[in-house]
Amino acid sequence: MTSIAFYLHTYDSAQVKITLVQMGGISLIGFWYVSVLCDFENQWNKYALVAAPLLMSLASGLLSFSHAAYRGPSLDECLRRVFYIHFALIALREFSTVERVRRLILYLLIAVSVASIYGLVQILDRNFFAIPQNSTGIDPFVWRQAFGAKIFSTFGNPNFFGNFLVILTPITLALLLKRNADKPISVMLFSLTSIIVSALLWQSDQFTAMLHLDSWSMTFFVLLLCAYTFYATIRFSFLGFLQFLITLCVVVTESKGSWIGFTVSYVSFWVLVIYFFSQFQSANLRKVILRAVISTLAFSIFSVGLYSHKRMQSVRFRQCTWMSTFEMALLHPVWGNGIGSFRIIYPAFRRPQIFHQEGKHNTETDHAEDEYLEVLQDEGLMGFGIFLWMIATFSALGLKALDRFTEGFSVRDLTTGKRRVTQDSRAYYMLGVLAAFWGMLLHNFMDVSLRFVSSGIFLWLLAGVIGAMVVHDPMPETDEIAASLRAKEKEEDQMTQAHPEALLMAGQGVCLLVFGYLSWIVLRDFNDAQGFLPQPLGEVLLWVISWAAVLATMGGFWYGLVKVGRSLKQVYGFLVLLIVMAWPLQIFWGYFMADVFHNRGIFYSKQGKWEDAIASYNKVVSLNPNYIMAYYFLGNVYTDRWGPGDVDRAMHEYHRVWAIAPNYVQTHHQAGLVYLKKGQDDRAAGRLAEAKADWDQALYYFHKYHDIDPVFEPNYSRIGWVHLQLAEIDTALGHPEEIAPNQKAAEEAYTESLYAWMCRIPQNDIYDDWNATHRHFDGEMFENLGNVRFIRGNLAGAVRAYNLSLWQTPDNVRVMKNLASVLSRMGRQNDVIHLWGQIRQLAPQDPDVQRVFHGNIPAHP
To answer: Does this model's pTM top 0.85?
Structure first.
């Protein structure tokens, strides 16, 4: 469900995945705690060594959270760690039979099948119904082609989709090899050709262009896709088709990190086959597999290198982010800055290159694009060491178990002399899971998929499955066999005495009432979020699928609750259910609805329905007090509405933002705008002293914003404008000694913006020799500089600034008129006449042109 769920009725389309993990996770944990409590003596000693790295990872996360400077915004990341570790512990204890492992893998195959088939739909939609030529296509949903040529399936980002496919690639390949254990070369060649065919399909237009068959591009794509799909299905059944589809989707995500992760998991898979599977140990077979591995590595290195060179922005973004993250880690190298603290601290360390690369200033970078660096920043060397210990432990456990599971794979019959192959399905499961574990870990050297629930749940789940196959060795084939073995081990005198039936019925009744009420709240609120049945096909599908998913999930919850409730023999089991599950379920559902109300607040804000927007945002922060963006948007609503008392209301909201995120995006600039507008109102009302105080306060906030974003040009423009207004007020108030400093400060603000002083300091000059080449030349900013120089009497400097402005915007009549005025004062009449001739050609009906050429009156701006 977490993998295939996607929903757009909230602000964050991934919120549905987060809610599934939060609410589903707390339900699963509650049920598990009841199980643990009622069967506490179940050989806990055998789990201790394997569970130790998981428990230490949990302890590290909790300790890190305890000393985080801003625990509110860090809570979400801490909770994810709690959920992930519990998922691993549950897998470690409960995946005690081959049947259970097989069932988990079946669910994974169902999820990847849905995601990959929808990925194929997106590929076909991209190839045959490209935007903007076609407003509709075979992908019926409103998010179609949200990432252009890149596909993302049921994930909010191509990188997350790619990471999920990286995990499932070796698992699917292991099942394919298990089914075709007598034909390993065929499986290996098929997997290799799938990569080649996928690359050809992805670049079909380029390939046909090389053959001078441009008009055959679509035909080639369709024929190759249909032919290879038919071959894969006929030769290897559905698993073959799925393996090809996974490979194709990985390629078309165009995510270099996913390509690297895919390569690592693929190569790891075949290397493990060579070293551990005895029936594949012939010299020729090893030689073929090694050649395939080397070819795949070479192809991946070439592809990643080529596309990295084509899109250097992605590489440079990571380079800048990694450098900043390492600097953040040095603040508290041993203990770390606190789990989930990256997005709070990062704005103070973000380099100017990021603003240039993104082309935006109101975006937030949530993660470090490298899981290892982020762990180091969050939890310091101590937590980083525990993370590496966890990886090393489960890798070693997996390798040792794989060696044990393949011991008797190929034995020689003493009578015939021929080798006889015996199958242990656990060997194939461990092969796929271990390669997936490594592929995901390598992928996250240049990505942060582990920080998002769509992928993050799988790392720890894979670790738990690896541990389970080690701890429960020998592993019974079915649950029935395991139950019979446990019954023999358990003595009658070990059975816990059951509580009276009346108490148990009371516990069942309370659970029925509490969870029934919570279920009613969920259905009521979700009905409100969904609205009536919509009209467009895609919206109808989303509406129907969403309701089906909610009802199915709730039905599963109630099925589990009823089974657990009826089986409990001790009343304290009901207390565990109520304490562990009830209140957190209400809180997490509130988080989901907070995202819904945030979406509504944005909708009302865009329409200028201020009261509705304010009510929506207030609902958000009541449901989720750590929702930073809601406070920020609420402050912006008050600034835009600008009614009586809105100045104080807006600043109150910005202070609420700074209490939990002191450098959140553009809050400081927005606060400066509040006082800028207030100063304008005070000046218009004749309150000059108040206006001066307001504008001094505006400058305070504009300079605070400058410290974290030295690129935003409007910030410089407003700093300069405010200084000029202060100079005018100083003139009116009779403070001549303050006029020149304000005018000078305005000129310095414009000059700093144009010549990119902060971008060019050695600390920020990371690549491309910015000190020599990087400038922020802008026609309007040069015009501002010319104006202030004119005011200060620097006529020659004003001429240079106006000429540079015209170099950027050659047809700017306003600047040309200003330049003509300055040249006239300098006595350069020939230049003035020539310039007015140019102005006349550009704007013959301009009033100043009419006065100059028909009234013979010099024009002065």
So the answer is: yes
Identify which of 522, 516, 523, 517 has the alpha carbon closest to the alpha carbon of residue 562: 516
Name which of 624, 630, 641 is nearest 598 in CA terms: 630
Burial bucket for residue 625 (CB in 10 Å: 0-12, 13-18, 19+): middle
Are 442 and 258 a contacting pair, CB within 8 Å? no
- Between 161-170, 177-186, 262-271, 391-400, the lowest mean confidence (pLDDT) is in 177-186
* pLDDT per position as a tens digit, 301-346: 888 888 777 778 888 888 999 999 999 999 999 999 999 999 999 9
Rg value, the chain, Cα = 33
C-alpha separations of 315 from 309, 442, 497 in Å: 9, 16, 63
Task: Compute CA distances 408 → 51, 176, 403, 427, 431, whole Å.
Answer: 28, 20, 10, 11, 16
Q: For the chain, what is the mean pLDDT?
A: 90
**Going by DSSP bridges, is the β-strand pair 410-412/419-421 parallel, antiparallel, or unpaired?**
antiparallel
Helices 256-276 and 425-443, axial angle in degrees (round to 10): 150
Amino acid identity of residue 116, one-letter, is: S
Report the C-alpha gap between 504 and 224 in whole angstroms.
Answer: 64
Alpha helix stretches (DSSP H) within 129-255: 158-179, 184-202, 204-210, 217-252
Report the chain's terminal Cα–Cα distance, integer Å.
66
Report the pLDDT value the prediction gives residue 861, as an integer from 0 to 100: 44
User: Residues of 297-320 as b/e, b for ≥16 C-beta within 10 angstroms?
Assistant: eebbeebbeeeeeeeeebebbbbb
Give the DSSP per-residue string, 754-800: HHTTTTTSTTT--STTHHHH-----HHHHHHHHHHHHHTT-HHHHHH
Give Dmax (Cα) for the chain.
120
Query: Which DSSP string do the residues of 168-181 spell out, in sequence order?
Result: HHHHHHHHHHHHTT
CB within 8 Å of 301: residues ≥ 6 apart: none
Which candidate, 432, 524, 451, places its Cα nearest to that of 239? 432
Position 232 scores a pLDDT of 96
Sign of the CA dihedral with 421 first, then 422, 425, and 430 last: negative
